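Appendix B, record 7
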Amino acid sequence: MQQRLAILDDYQDVAHGFADWASLEQAGVLTSVFREPFQSPDALVAALVDCQIVVAMRERTPFPRAVLEKLPALKLLVTTGMANAAIDVEAAGELGITVCGTPGSPTAAPELTWALLLALARNLPAEENSLRAGTWQTSVGTELAGKTLGIVGLGRIGRRIATYGQAFGMEVLAWSQNLTAEAAKEAGARKVSKEELFRNSDVATLHLRLSPRSEGIVGEPELRLLGPEGLLVNTARGPLINQDALVRALNEGWIRGAALDVFDEEPLPAGNPLLGAPNTVLSPHLGYVTRESYSQFYGGAFEDVSAWLAGSPVRVLSP
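Structure tokens (predicted):
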């Protein structure tokens, strides 16, 4: 019996370059690749209603209970990475859908975080644009050495960012709801309160998982504490920051600038006020978009599908 496999949100048309999906045809699996995001849950259901296997790229496409209940053929849902807040894993289990994850790169997102921070501190996008327009040296940048780096969320990525800060000669502060002084010290940081972090940091960078507890964790009070010379970096999840407050902060000069790789709505729609806000460095959620990361994501997804077809699923996620 032929089964259908759908690979979702392959924006760059690269999935077939990182795994041999065509070889699954010998096992009776017909593979379809979707490059464009679905415009509604109904459009998603219509496209996948006959699919037994779906490979999702990170959290680009949500799979809440209401969607999963309308996909009776679905038996295997693979997410790249080992966690996906956009998939209702509990509902999937109740509906008999196996959810599997993949390995991921530990360095892709931290490296992009630091690239954005450096670009923001030295005004690189604005300077490049002015250079191409025929102007020379239009701004004065800021050095990181001797400055204070505040890390919100000292997990796997946050700890790596702490080492980068130390290498650049920065004092490192850290805060999250459950962070202990001992864990912060082990990472080379000093645990402080959230208010202290934003008041005393020259740069604040966010590395929390998005949850009801963390949504909007940075709003007007934190942005005002960061101050007119403060820099904000977010490569975690857009809704960690109150976007309305951030737009006001940029337009009214509460902070010096922001570097963002993530947004409330992705892909970022035309007309979003962040696109016109001053003193920003914006990138289209590139934190995990590297050859090394995609090799692990798509290669791991291929392993998941092959193992499931053989009757021995691997990297099964539980609620």
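Remarks on this record: Residues 261 and 286 are 7 Å apart (CA to CA). The longest helix spans residues 291-309.
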